[in-house]
Amino acid sequence: MAAMGKTENEFASKLHAAQARPFLRVLVTGGAGFLGSHLCRRLLDEGHQVICLDNFFTSQKLNIQDLFDRPNFEFVRHDITEPFRAEVDQIYNMACPASPVHYQYNPIKTTKVSVLCELRYSRGLSPPDACDALFFSCLSTWRRPR
C-alpha cells in the first residue's frame, strides 16, 4: 500500500507541474525545416499553440504534413524578409539556410533572413518585454565559409 501511495503522489505532482506550465502561443520561423519541424512537434506535444512560418526555400511541406491535423498548429507560407505581425509569447527564428548549396545560391537573401529578422523583432514588431525570442542563423552569415 505504501508503494501505491507514493505512485499516486508522484502522479499528482507531475499532473500539477503540467497544469502549472503556461500555455504559450509560439511563432517558429523556418518551422518546416528539419530542426524547425521537430521543434514544432515538441512545442505542440507540450500543449502550446504553434504558428509555423516558412516559404519552403530550403524546406519541404512533407516535414510538417503530419502537423496539419493538430488543432493547435497553424501554418503560414511567408517569406520572413517581408514584415509579419502576430501576437505571440515566444519566437524561435530558425529561418536561415544552413546548407552551403542553399546559402551560396542566394547569399544576399541568406544575410537578409538572418539580419533583417533580428532587427525587425528587436525593434518592435513584437515588443521585447512582451515576447521572448531565440535567433538561429547560418554560420556563414557571420564569417566566410572555407
From TrEMBL:
<keyword id="KW-0812">Transmembrane</keyword>
<dbReference type="GO" id="GO:0033320">
    <property type="term" value="P:UDP-D-xylose biosynthetic process"/>
</dbReference>
<feature type="domain" description="NAD(P)-binding">
    <location>
        <begin position="27"/>
        <end position="119"/>
    </location>
</feature>
<dbReference type="GO" id="GO:0042732">
    <property type="term" value="P:D-xylose metabolic process"/>
</dbReference>
<comment type="pathway">
    <text>Nucleotide-sugar biosynthesis; UDP-alpha-D-xylose biosynthesis; UDP-alpha-D-xylose from UDP-alpha-D-glucuronate: step 1/1.</text>
</comment>
<dbReference type="InterPro" id="IPR044516">
    <property type="entry name" value="UXS-like"/>
</dbReference>
<dbReference type="Pfam" id="PF16363">
    <property type="entry name" value="GDP_Man_Dehyd"/>
</dbReference>
<keyword id="KW-0333">Golgi apparatus</keyword>
<keyword id="KW-0456">Lyase</keyword>
<protein>
    <recommendedName>
        <fullName>UDP-glucuronate decarboxylase</fullName>
        <ecNumber>4.1.1.35</ecNumber>
    </recommendedName>
</protein>
<dbReference type="GO" id="GO:0032580">
    <property type="term" value="C:Golgi cisterna membrane"/>
</dbReference>
<keyword id="KW-0520">NAD</keyword>
<dbReference type="GO" id="GO:0048040">
    <property type="term" value="F:UDP-glucuronate decarboxylase activity"/>
</dbReference>
<comment type="similarity">
    <text>Belongs to the NAD(P)-dependent epimerase/dehydratase family. UDP-glucuronic acid decarboxylase subfamily.</text>
</comment>
<keyword id="KW-0472">Membrane</keyword>
<keyword id="KW-1133">Transmembrane helix</keyword>
<dbReference type="InterPro" id="IPR016040">
    <property type="entry name" value="NAD(P)-bd_dom"/>
</dbReference>
<dbReference type="GO" id="GO:0070403">
    <property type="term" value="F:NAD+ binding"/>
</dbReference>
<dbReference type="InterPro" id="IPR036291">
    <property type="entry name" value="NAD(P)-bd_dom_sf"/>
</dbReference>
<keyword id="KW-0735">Signal-anchor</keyword>
<keyword id="KW-0210">Decarboxylase</keyword>
